[in-house]
User: What shape does this take?
Amino acid sequence: MAKYSPFKPISLPDRQWPNQTLTKAPIWCSVDLRDGNQALINPMGPAKKLEMFRLLLKIGFKEIEVGFPAASETDFSFVRELIDKDLIPADVTIQVLTQARPHLIERTFEAIQGAPNVIVHLYNSTSELQRRVVFRADKSDIVKLAVDGAALIHTLAASCAGTSVRYQYSPESFTGTELDFAAEICDAVCDVWQPTKTCKTIINLPSTVELSTPNVYADQIEYFCRLFKHRDQSIISLHTHNDRGTGMAASELGMLAGGERVEGTLFGNGERTGNLDIVTMALNLTTQGIDSGLDFSNVKEVRRVAEFCTEIKVHERAPYAGDLVFTAFSGSHQDAIKKGFEAMRESGQSLFEVPYLTIDPADIGRQYDPVIRVNSQSGKGGVSFLVESELGFHLPRKLQVAFSKVIQQITDETGQEITSAEVASKFLSTYVHPPALLTYSTHTPLECNVDEQERHRFVGTFKGVPYELVGQGSGPLDAMVHALTDEFRLAFDILDYQEHAMEAGSGSAAAAYVLVKAPNGEERFGVGQHKSIIKASIHAFVAAVNRSLQHAEFE
Ligand code: KIV
Ligand code: ZN
Assistant: This one.
């Protein structure tokens, strides 16, 4: 006999779920304080539990499974603390888990006395394997266990004054349970609880162990809903684990198949490979334009608290929250990202369309600047993106190419990444403030009697000696070019000139880019920045001349 066998597919030729799309968020239930907590090497103590509870409230969860109070004294006293100290907001329902054993159910009700809104969550295992191997019980014993437990819960709820008790039942190990039996046991529990369309029971269908591909889970959910007689009086809840690494997909497809509620944890903490990661699932919805109802606008803070409480680090590649997920290493990716941001800025569109990014990092409290880190593999796109985001310069294409070579030389030599601050500083020292043999401080227009020409007096220093020069040209920049040629034999031609307004608040109104050709034929860029566009252009020209004069650097 082979050691492993394939999961038996569900025969559902008229399955409907593949034709559905997600259009709204599910009801979310966090199980961080129960399923997540029970799987920690160091389970949370009271202080951490409270911190996690507060975080979950801040995120916006309205249903929170706070523990298994009959199974653990810590959970019992935590539930009591929440109730006694009035820490549960009026619109939030706590959920408590219990097995179908009378003494556990009774203790659970002791724990919830005085809480305004509670979901009592009953479960027992129903799979063929567990019945055969663990309980050595037949189906009727398993149904009786669930029904007896449900009946006791119903009785105790009736005498639970001041508490609105809702019911939840989970056929644990649902994915390994025959679907007709899963429906049978859920119907038997509902026969006891008597749900209505206005007062529904939650039927939670756990992929306690993920046994098959996510499409099979979706088939199971759809097929179950067809067989289950109390479908209209129930909320179908999904609870997927991640044994095959597809727990997220299983929940998403399960929603297409009829799931209305989703249980999971922050960053997928939970037994073995973990539970469904609610952060990812919620933000997946955000990227589809669907309001998730949860607030992950500061995902770093959520991550900080979750890591503190669970003592488990979020992986660098975890969707949305990982350190590296907004970092592009490849030059072509960087170029495309930069163009995406530029196109959005130019068009003023609000629809987020940036290649390689599914979400605007700013929407989840992450920043644009770490989107691109520059190493020896980075192209001009990444480098100029950083110059733009750090300094506000939109470099002409030729200058992008030239400056990326400057940076590449550094990263090749050091073999290290270069930070955005280092890139910015290198840009300024290379193009804006190169070592200056020539300086310029002011210019004054003079009278000129030649048509379409201007005369200007320029003041500055050359090789440390003050000068006052007069030049004539089509404008101040042209006049400066002529003044330098005439006075110092610095015969530079301007090959290219570009300018743009700087972002408001940058302190300068304009940036100018000048490409000069030196007398020896070499071409150099200079960049100027000033409140006056004319001064910005003269500074750019002077910077280009100085770069030529220093002749130490070749691009
Ligand atoms: O994974 C599971 O089946 C559970 C149940 C208790 C819902 O956690
Ligand atoms: Zn679970």
Observations:
- The CA atoms of residues 280 and 319 lie 6 Å apart.
- The pocket of 3-methyl-2-oxobutanoic acid (ligand 1) is lined by residues 35, 97, 123, 170, 172, 204, 206, 208, 239, 241 (CB under 6 Å).
- The longest strand covers residues 117-125.
